[in-house]
Amino acid sequence: MVFQIQNMSPEHWPAVREIYREGIATENATFETQLPTWEKWDSGHRRDCRLVAMDSSHSQEPIVLGWAALSPVSARQVYAGVAEVSVYVAIVARGRGVGKVLLEALIRESEAARVWTLQAGIFPENVASVGLHKSCGFREVGRRSRIGKLGDQWRDVLLLERRSSVAGV
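The structure assignment produced for this chain is given below.
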């Protein structure tokens, strides 16, 4: 599969939103159950470090295969270099390396933006996502037991983090 990583723009939102919908439907990607508007999503994520994987090999119109973005973990200045990772891959592109290329590119972008710690909260049942993050240098730092409910079911979340060897040293 041939694809390129680009900066995400508002024009990508319909495809990004659909891929997010696919993730929500698995009930193993997020506690969210409703799709946000662009304005809500945009306000909750950093303006930099937003990427899409684009496939332009099969059609006149490039297709978004996946996306990755960072959210601030706190408004406090001391945590300015800490961000939470989101990586979502379209159903049709899963298992083809799109997530790994996106996460590696997001790590490079984050370090260029002086982010020294990336964290991810992942449901333990999402084995593919846990494996992806660990393959990119994240380590498990804890398990938050019964941290939230998805529907009527309490869910655990694994907390993974990656400390940059470039930024914040």
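Interim note for the steering committee: The mean pLDDT is 95. The helical segments are 13-26, 38-43, 98-112, 127-135.
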